[in-house]
Design goal:
MFS transporter; single chain; 2 domains; MFS; cell membrane; 398 residues; mainly alpha; MFS_dom
């Protein structure tokens, strides 16, 4: 078995996350695709959103497949699908076939998504500091991959829209590096110590709370991203272009994610509460910004920090609540929450506006702040309950 602590092994494990958020990296080519294929706006937008549907389906299937053929082979299969299906539109002219290739691309993402997290948790289960550091870097890798592939797709677009899809060919060298250097993973090791017998669905309540929190968190992040541009235009005028600010946001996530391991070592569960606190502040600043652009901008910039604290914390903490055997399923549950949160964001904003009693663009965000306070309280008391149970268990053993 390869040394899991070698630089190349860690690089191989992290590299698979570079492609995970690249479904929208070809969005800049969509107008040219529409004119080239003579398709409607809805058909054009489906090319961007179709992968999300198959991601949800195959995130669930990934845990079953990993149980059958192993984590490493499942990730390798996902990368193979990303490279083949992602790059297929370079040679295709038929819209239904291109749409099908995008669906298969999402299937590849779905097979990789939860396992990119759980492989770190399984490999470094007994090395909490290393595990936390790698989860932080993994989140940064997603942001780096998204930003880099989007830029490359834009450069390739100068040739023709087909070439934008060449970005997905990066999956092949990633597959090669992963297959050669990533160690074999056995999620069933120490199964005799599994304290959670029974169905995969028999998980700690904390895991279900985390999944609901992930749903709400992504819903709020999506709402902030969508509304920021509209609010900025409302303040600055119709000619204002917020794209530069939007493009800079992943950089904040990259920097924060790089320091997650250190922050987690210093503060432990404090990472979660710091993240929630910053997101509450961001929502309040955006919600009450009115005509104050500086206040809006500060709030939006702050909102780029919490995700790189909270999500690595959630993924890093899963091993405290689930066995290795259930790790892939628990991670899949969190990721399904994330995808549902993205889908439900418009409905969440609508409900928050109804609750607030106003129709202003910033109306949902003070309501979201209250929701986040509630979530923080739930996590606090749930953590106290789990701590007391652990203490009682230790006492009974003695």
């Amino acid at each position: 078995m390869r040394n899991k602590n070698s630089f190349m092994s860690k690089l191989a494990v992290l590299s698979v996350s570079l492609v995970l958020t690249s479904a929208g990296s070809i969005n800049g080519a969509l107008p040219l695709i529409q004119s080239g294929l003579k398709i409607s706006n809805t058909e054009m937008e489906l090319l961007s959103t179709a992968p999300a549907l198959s991601v949800v389906i195959f995130v669930l299937l990934s845990a079953v497949l990993a149980d059958w053929i192993g984590i490493k082979k499942t990730i390798a299969l996902g990368l193979l699908l990303v490279g083949i299906a992602g790059g297929a539109p370079m040679l295709l002219q038929n819209y239904p076939v291109i749409l099908a290739s995008r669906f298969i691309l999402g299937a590849g993402f779905g097979l990789i998504n939860s396992l990119a997290v759980s492989i770190i948790n399984v490999l470094f289960d007994r090395e909490p500091n290393t595990k936390a550091t790698l989860q932080g870097f993994r989140g940064s890798a997603e942001n780096v991959g998204n930003a880099t592939l989007t830029i490359i797709a834009g450069v390739l677009l100068a040739m023709n829209w087909h070439m934008s899809f060449a970005i997905y060919l990066i999956a092949f060298p990633i597959l090669l590096v992963f297959w050669i250097f990533a160690p074999e993973v056995n999620p069933h090791s120490n199964d005799e110590q599994d304290s959670q017998p029974g169905s995969l669905f028999n998980l700690s309540p904390t895991v279900w709370i985390m999944a609901i929190f992930a749903l709400l968190l992504v819903m709020i992040f999506t709402a902030l991203s969508v509304r920021f541009s509209s609010m900025a235009v409302a303040i600055k005028g119709a000619n204002y272009n917020a794209s530069n600010i939007l493009a800079a946001m992943p950089i904040i996530g990259i920097i924060t994610g790089s320091f997650f391991g250190l922050l987690n070592k210093w503060t432990g569960k404090g990472c979660l509460y710091i993240g929630i606190g910053l997101l509450i502040i961001a929502n309040l600043l955006v919600g009450f910004s009115g005509d104050n652009f500086s206040m809006l901008l500060i709030g939006y910039v702050i909102s780029g920090i919490p995700g790189s604290l909270i999500f690595p914390f959630i993924y890093n903490s899963l091993s405290l609540y689930v066995s290795k055997k259930r790790m892939a399923f628990a991670t899949s549950l969190i990721l399904i929450g994330c995808n549902l949160g993205n889908f439900l964001s418009p409905f969440g904003m609508k409900i928050a506006q109804v609750v607030s009693g106003t129709t202003g663009l910033g109306a949902p965000f003070p309501v979201f702040s209250i929701v986040l306070v509630g979530i923080g309280i739930v996590f606090y008391f749930q953590d106290r309950v789990m701590t007391k149970r652990a203490a009682m268990s230790e006492t009974s053993v003695k």
